[in-house]
Amino acid sequence: MDGARERITTNIRKGVLEYCVLALLSRRDMYGLELADWLAVRGLTASEGSLYPLLARMRQAGTVQTRWVAPEQGHARRYYAITDQGRAHLRVFATVWREIQPHVDELMGEEG
Amino acid sequence: MSDDGLPEAAWAYLRALDAELSDVPSGTAEEIVADVRAHIADALDSGRSADEVLAGLGAAPDVARQAREELGLPDQDRPERVGRTLSLVASAVGVLIAVCVSFLLPSTVPVEPIQADAGEQGVLGRLGPGIALLTLLPALVAAAPLVAPARVRAGSRLAGAIALTMFACAAGETGLYYFPLALVAWAAAFVPWAVRRGAGGRWWHVLAGGIVAMPGVLVAVASAGGSVGVGWVGAALWIAGPVAAGALCAYGFRAGYAVTALAGALVMILAMAERGFLFAAFWLFGGLYLALGAAGYAAARPADGDPATARAADGDPTSPPVDGDPAGAPGAPARPRPAPATEADPEAAAPAG
Description:
Distance between the termini of chain A: 18 Å
CATH architecture of chain A: Orthogonal Bundle
Radius of gyration of chain B: 23 Å
Distance between the termini of chain B: 6 Å
Number of domains of chain A: 1
Number of domains of chain B: 3
Radius of gyration of chain A: 16 Å
Largest sheet of chain A: 3 strands, antiparallel
CATH superfamily of chain A: Winged helix-like DNA-binding domain superfamily/Winged helix DNA-binding domain
Pfam families (chain A): PadR (PF03551)
Organism (chain A): Micromonospora chalcea
Strand content of chain B: under 5%
Mean pLDDT of chain B: 74
Strand content of chain A: 5-15%
Order of helices and strands of chain A: HEHHEEH
Mean pLDDT of chain A: 90
Structural class of chain A: alpha+beta
Shape of chain B: globular
Shape of chain A: globular
Oligomer: heterodimer
Order of helices and strands of chain B: HHHHHHHHHHHHHHHHH
Number of helices of chain A: 4
Low-confidence stretches of chain B: 106-128, 303-353
InterPro entries (chain A): Metal_resp_DNA-bind_regulator (IPR052509), Tscrpt_reg_PadR_N (IPR005149), WH-like_DNA-bd_sf (IPR036388), WH_DNA-bd_sf (IPR036390)
Helix content of chain B: 55-70%
Protein name (chain A): PadR family transcriptional regulator
Number of strands of chain B: 0
């Protein structure tokens, strides 16, 4: 059963992780570790490392953009910010999610 | 602790990740590595141990697999690809040598040492007793890893290299012909292992370039001392050729390794055709060129031609300017790659702590 659980978890995460990132970034700009920690603590990503290839692809797709911020102390951080295109994608996802979610919940409710 | 003081385990992880990302477009690979480096530095700042941070990131090959998946690239383990390329080269070299031995030198083939080699009697029986087919046996040993199951593949490369070396040493004059094959077989056994461990830094290229350039340097020294007369054509061929190829290899240019491998094959073929004075020297050195060139070609990064220059062009990565590049197109300005601590990378060179 552990194998099945892992497969199901992986598949569901695959579908939602990108939009969780967009939703987080729609609140405020965040740097890599912040994003990774937030997602990993909530079990939305299996390993923190897998976040960065996703961010690279999202950057290419134009849903996020980045800037380096060099604080007076310590090292530079690359901050991620959501773009207008990213917000548009996020709105579409939210609509679809709200349509699907109650039905899935209803069915899963029967499973206890 | 600042970004400058990453522990060696973190550098090793970044080097391994960088190597695993070799088939990802270089701009994207650099972004991912730079992000992971910043992640590690931030996490260490927050008081986590290096082991904890690296475990949280997940294994480098897994991150690379994720990247290939995100970018729609074919999923193939890089060390495995390198090993496969070198096993293919070894098989081709084995066939070439078999053709030379069986057609150009039919009288020098002793049957016994081949039969005694590596317990291959089963294959032998199926192939029948033809001498010409016997000479192909070493090529089959070199090709075996191509069809071996994944879990014994690395072992079969090592076993093949050992068997071919023993055969080359034990089989007298015939063995001499198979030395180049043994060299390529060792490359096929060693290079994937080195790549998996994240090797492939500049010093490997410098070492390879030095070996490639050596004959040119020797000829130059000999002709300068007057002990060998060299015309300008000879000078171009035997001095400028190796030195230029060596320089290209030392900079990590893939083309330099390709030229070196082809030159090695050519020298071997010419040596075989001429069979003149110093045959063994030309044959073995041609084989060394071929093995070295094939190893470097398989291990060098394909996408970003010149890693040494890319690193030299890096600015100070600790205070990069605003990076207003929303599209993040492949081939975007180079972000720093992780480099071994010995290299002239401002971050790596800084003392730890």
